[in-house]
Structures are given as structure tokens and as C-alpha cells.
Amino acid sequence: MNMCRPVDVAKWWQQENPAAQRRAPSSSSPSSSSSSVRLMEAVRCVASEQRRMLSSAQPLSTLPRLRRSSFPQQRGRSRHFLITATSTSGLQVALYVFTEAGELSSFSKMSVFGPVVKIHPVVLASICDSYERRNEGASRVIGTLLGTIDKHSIEVTNCFSVPHNESEDEVAVDMEFAKNMYELHKRVSPTEVIIGWYATGFDITEHSVLIHEYYSREASNPIHLTVDSALQSGKMNIRAYVSAQMGVPGKTVGVMFTPLSVKYVYYDTERIGVDLLQRTRVTPSRTKGLTSDLSQVAGSAARVQDMLTTVLAYIEDVLSGKVTADNSVGRFLMDLVNKVPTISAEDFENMLNSNINDLLMVTYLSNLTQAQIALNEKLVLL
Amino acid sequence: LPVSLPKVVLKIIKHYQEEGQGSEVVQGVLLGLVVDDRLEITNCFPFPQHTEDDADFDEVQYQMEMMRSLRHVNIDHLHVGWYQSTYYGSFVSRALLDSQFSYQHAIEESVVLIYDPIKTAQGSLSLKAYRLTPKLMEICKEKDFTPEGLKKANIGFEHMFEEVPIVIKNSHLISVLMWELEDKSTVADKHELLNLSSSNHLEKSLQLLMDRVDDMSQDIVKYNTYSRNLSKQQQQKHQYLQRRQQENAQRQSRGEPPLPEEDITKMFKPPQPPPRMDTLLIAGQINNYCQNVKEFTSQNLGKLFMAEALQGHN
After folding, report:
1. Closest by Cβ to A131, choosing from B167, B173, B189
2. pLDDT confidence of A110, banded at 50, 70, 90?
3. Which of A277, A319, B118, B166 is most buried, judging by how many CB atoms fall within 10 Å of its CB?
4. What SS3 state is found at A135?
């Protein structure tokens, strides 16, 4: 696979904008800012076009203003670079790297570099909650992510929000607060460590880089999670990034945020909790009481019944020739039918009856006990 | 009636999963607001496990710090209750009563959320909210646990706790999150509820029930001895009085001064009535176990009949 090294990119960028080579980080020279503004314009159009292209899975044919000849391109796999340049310091460059792999059409599936990020739903719920509670005027919320690091995966299990102020030029994060909270959390779950930070909002801004630097002092190689709570693209995109150094050593150094793939993991009980929460989507008032007793069994049975109807419909279609039969599905169906154990009717009757007897006996016993204690109560009060 | 938000549910589940595997219970504090006639629970944080050294002081300080920090990020920091996990439904204990009493004394509306992880693992979220009935509150205030006191209040084990229904309310953003999760996550096994195996659960429940019944019977024996003692004492008192009167009559007939009436109460000290609070608690616990077992068996009966239907078609 031909990879275009970040070094080449930096060189290319310098060629394009020779004026931006001035290294003064504080003052923003007008020429570099204008060129970077131009570049940002370019980036914006390209970004929107990228999205359009990727969603329709067409081969890329138009890339305005970025010189594509310097990018080696392979059949079916091409690398697009989008570069945003900050206006304050021409050196800090954040890159988005997207890879299109063949038939992929959704924007969120990207190929992986490095560890997989596994997120628990409790983290996302907390993030959404803190977004809803943000101060007036703040456009986004940030906070710390806690979790555990494995060799190949990072598991995010907890988070808390950190107050911060953000304006055009600067960003202030209350690190003292973050440290305190971390200590408190550590007392409860000593296995969790700071593994990164999160921010709501779609893009990675220049402030993110600074904040990321703060966090890299706390944890080695922190990950950055963005949750698009403003629903800019119609869905809530949840992405994770890891930072990597890029650039020519000694000269222009930048930070690149490479995306990681995000998976959701649940504990079993969490899964059940989330299921209950899923059911609140349906009711218009978004509320749901906790069901009890037989209604739960009925609910489960109804779900299984739904699934069976879908399967039956599929079978009907195949039989009537509307849909071509798929062998793997056929095998699954065979498995399904064979799973119902064939027991002789008599044996099954016996098993069923003994089980029912057990349950009835236990019910009787508990009723008896309850009557007994009620009696005892009455006798004492005499 | 309390309304809880999904964050709380998930946090409680997670806390138990991570920390509570070995030990008895995990506890934590509920935070929220009181709105109209509803109690909204919007956040919670867990307590660290009790260590050997200086547990109390740590707790209070920990709480204070947590609440202060949460205030900075605009999270409601008002105490509205606490939560606890339970093992097979055995949570009616003196400690729970005391804690809940102190909470309810301070904050009128507070509840205790009981989370049953084992039942949840079986397929459906088991989260219940309880408050002490006003009658019980009064008794706890008086600290009068004698049988007379309880008779006065006319309280039975069924009236100790009142269960409050819980409603889970989602904001729109969370609904979007739910849709997203539904898309992205793999279809996990959602069918633990239809699991037919019941003997394990029943065994454990019944064992706990038996233990409690044993406790109860010991308590009853104690009470019986007490009442027997009391009645024996009454008899003795009566006999003594009679003898006294007889003697007095004899003396009078003989012309001697009557013996003074001695203070009877000093002679026969009434036996100490045993405190009835424990009995009440045990009775409540037994009741709880029985309820759980009955729920479980009814569910299983349903499942068994379903299995029969499945076999029937075969």
C-alpha cells in the first residue's frame, strides 16, 4: 500500500504556502493567515464534497484546489488529506485522515490504526447529560475519560465533566478540579485511570490541540472522543482520535489526530438496562415504567414472535421465488429448527409436570409462610 | 413518585458490576430535585467500600467534596436519597432502617433505591424505590419498640415500607443516543428472560427464606418465654396477695396487728419485654422473600407452558 508520509504532506504544504514558513507562533502574519484562510475554504468545500462522495460511494474524481498529482493513488484505496491550518500559529496543523476502502459508503467506518476504543453506554449518557446542563453561552462541554487500557483496546468506563472557558483566542481548563474529581473517583474504583478526554461538537478545533496537550501530561497517549451532540450531520457521530506527531523533525511539527474505531460494549446487566431505555424511545412522552411479572415474559415472547414472523416472511419469499435463497441463511434455519429438542411426548410430559409441581410447591410454601407470620403478628398484638 | 434519568440507571448498574462482585452491598447517594409532586433523580455517585480505618470521616468528607465539585458543573447536588444493591432480595435490615430513617428525617421526600443485580441478570431491570411509612417514622422517632408501643401504632410488617413507582424519563438527546446505539451495537443476547432453568435461583431463595424463618422462630420462642414468665409472675403475685390476705385475716382473728402491705412491685420485678423491632424486620424480610419467590415462580410457570406449546407443534 502506498502511503503518503506525513513528511511529504508537510513539504507540500510548505511549497504551497511559502509565506507561512515564518515560525513566529504569537503573531499571525497576514499573508499566512490569508493563505490559511484560503486553505480553510478549500478544506471546507472538499470536506462537504467528501461527505457527498463517500455517501454515494463514487470514485473520487473532483478535488478542487488540492494538487492530487503529489498523492499516489491506488485502485480502490486512496487517501485524501484535508488540512486545516490555524490562524494563530502556522505550525500547529491538524489533519484529518480518511480512508475509503472499497464498497464502504458510510462515513463513520474508517480503517483502524492502533487500538480499538470500547465505550460503555454510561459514558455516553453522562456526556449527553452534561451537554444539556452546560452554562449559558458555552458551545461545548469537555471532560475527562476514565477507564482501563489493555494491549489492543482501550475501555472507557467512566467520565466526568470539567468546567472550562473557551473564547476565540484562548481556552482555560480547570485542571485543579479535574485532579480533585479524579482522586474522588479513584477511591471508589481504584482500577480506573485517566485515558483521555471528550468534547461535544463536531469538529476538532485548534483549542482541542491545546487541551490535548494538557491531557497528555496526565496520561500517556490520551485519546480524544468527540460526540456530536449538535447533530450536525443528522446523526450523533461519536468518534475517537489519538494524536500522533507529524511533520519534519526539527522544522514544522504538527499534531495529527488519527481516528480510531469505536465499539460499544456492555456488561450483561448493562445490556438489559439499555434495553429498557430503548423502549422509552417509542412512547411519545419518553417515559416508561418498570414492568413486572408476567408482562415481562409476555414482552419477551412477543419479541421472539416478531423475529419468527420476519423469518417466516423471508422463507415465504424464497419459496415463491421472489428472493434468491441464501445458503448460509438456510443453514441457520436448519440449526434453529434442530435446536428444539425432540423428546418423546411422554418424557416431556413427565419433565414438564415435575417442574410445574416444584414451582407450585414453592408457591404454596411461600404463601403458607406469609400466612404464618401474619398470624404471629396478630397473636402478638392481642 | 420518583422519576429517574437513564444516567442514574446505568451508573448504578456499572457500579455494582465493577465493585460489588465479592462483597455484600454497594451503596451510593442519589442526587436530584423535587419538582411538583415528583421526585426527579438526575445523578448519583457511589461510595467507596468501607475500609478498616476511619470509614466515617472519609464518607462525610467524600460526600462533601463530590457535591461541591458537581455544583461547579451545574449538576443538581441536592440529596434525595441513596441506593443499595441487594442479594436475592435480602435488604430489610436494621442498618437499612436506620439509614433510611435518618435520610427521611432530614429530607422529607427521600427514597432508597434497591437494585437487585441477580434479578436483573435474569432478564429485566429490577429497581425499586421504598420509603418508610409515616407510622414507622413515628415509631423510630420515639424509639419505642416494646410490644405495647407497636400495638398502639397498630403497625404490621406489611406497613413498614411503601413502594413508590419509578418512571424513567429520557430527554430528546438521550433518545437520539439510543437510536445511535441501536444502530451501531451488535445484537446481543436479549433472551435471558426466557431462560427455563430455575432450580438454582429457587434453591438460594429458599435457603435464605429458611434462615430467616429460623431467626423468626427463635424470636418467637423468646417472646413465648417472656409471656410465660409474665403470666407466671402474675400468678405468683396473685398467690402472694391471697396469702397475705389470709394471713391478715388470721392475725386479725388472733388479735395481732396486720402485716403491712408490702410493695408488690418491688418484690416481683416484671420481666423485660423483648424489643419487637427485630421481629418486625424479620417478618418484613420473610414477606419480601415470599413475594420474590412467588413472582419468580409465576414467571417460570408461564415459560414452562410456552415450552410445552413449542413441543406440541413438533
Report:
1. B173
2. very low
3. A277
4. coil
